[in-house]
Amino acid sequence: MLLEKKNAIIYGAGGGIGGGAARTFAREGARVFLAGRTAEPMEAVAADIWSAGGSAEVAVLDATDERAVDAHVEAVAGQAGSIDVSFNLISRGDVQRTPLDVLRVEGGRIAEITTFGATLFPAFGLPATR
Fold it and tell me: Which terminus of the chain has a smaller tally of CB atoms within 10 A, N or C?
């Protein structure tokens, strides 16, 4: 198994891509920590993983909140002993299925989420991964 004995945090794990990634990581042996804003879709992903014999835990948090992410990373690292994979999918769900002709940028929110996911997110929790 490619990810045997590895710990993976997946932010945006309740979405289609995040859930698929979580199931795949678990199938490959990872212990997955699902994180996102809405519990129900992540709980469904976790149930799929558990029923296939994998290990998954769910945490509800806003991955755009640096303090929440830092606290989550510290908790996972303390519980699991390491973080081997951090996979961020938060930028997709905020604008998915919105027709471009009605898409609005309010206070820079769309650009903020996209930039956040690509540049700022990797720095969150970095001390815990060393």
Answer: C
Q: What pTM, to 2 d.p., does this model score?
A: 0.73
Read off the pLDDT of residues 6-29 as tens digits, 9 standing for 90 and up: 999 999 899 888 999 999 999 999
At position 7, the amino acid (one-letter code) is N
3-state secondary structure the chain: CCCCCCEEEEECCCCHHHHHHHHHHHHCCCEEEEEECCHHHHHHHHHHHHHCCCEEEEEECCCCCHHHHHHHHHHHHHHHCCCCEEEECHHHHCCCCCCCCCCCCCCCHHHHHHHHHHHHHHHCCHHHHC
Beta carbons within 10 angstroms of residue 31's beta carbon: 21
What is the tens place of the pLDDT at every residue in 86-96? 888 875 445 55
How do strand 7-11 and strand 85-88 relate by DSSP bridges? parallel
The radius of gyration of the chain's CA atoms, rounded to the nearest angstrom, is 15
Spatial separation of the C-alpha atoms in residues 37 and 95, rounded to whole Å: 15
